[in-house]
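Fold this sequence, please.
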Amino acid sequence: MIGGGGEPALGFVDAVVLGLVEGITEFLPVSSTGHLILAQRLLGLPEGAANNTFAVGIQTGAITAILALYGKRVWTATRAALRPVVAEANLLWQIALGAAPAALLGFAADDWIDAHLFTPAVVAVAMIVGGVLLLALDRWSARRGPGMELPRLGYQRILCIGMFQCLALVPGASRSAATIAGALVVGGSRTAAAEFSFLVGLPILYGAAVLKVAKNPAALAGDALAPFLVGAAVAFASALLVVAPFVRYLRSHGFAAFAWYRIAAGVVVASACAAGYLA
């Protein structure tokens, strides 16, 4: 079966597997893009623009789960943003400000990133380095004590978080981990860090998907469209099941378990690359 991009279209089983990987990993600090790249290689799917477009496109399913869970909060912030006087930082403007640096850099460097960084070796290095940094930040924030919630972070700190999020353009670094790291550095609480990583993904992930499809519209045409819709739906459903338990976990735990997972997974992937099992 050939997709509109000239590459073999993914089958429905492939779409379900990739949708599960995306939905489970998108909002955890473990790198959904890195896991998708590895899953594609393990499924024997070819490298190419069409499969990269699929991987980015199904993120719309996962991020739509955030609209389902936090839509009321975003709508309230949208209405408040129209008021002339606001006593505290508005969530809508925080999301826009936090998303701007990565959105601008991603738009400028998208083709270069696709051509040079979508490899298992890059994922392995980013997983390990990111895991070590997340572990160090988690221990530091635990000694510091409870941090600030989102309204108290204001706008300057949010812009700093947005700069950290640029690190997530490297596959394996993790958008969620980069955002969480930035929030911890500027004094945010663990739950505020996680929830802002969810919310700032709204413009980032929708925008990235639109950009990918605009550059390669044939990738989701013809026989490729139905598997894409299945993958996005599975990503939506699985993300719904992950987000709330993750936030509950963070109320009494840190990010150490995710950091150690990143380090272990990165070592395994690096070993597989060195042994020639992953190109």
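The two ends are 24 Å apart (CA to CA). The chain has 13 helices and no strands.
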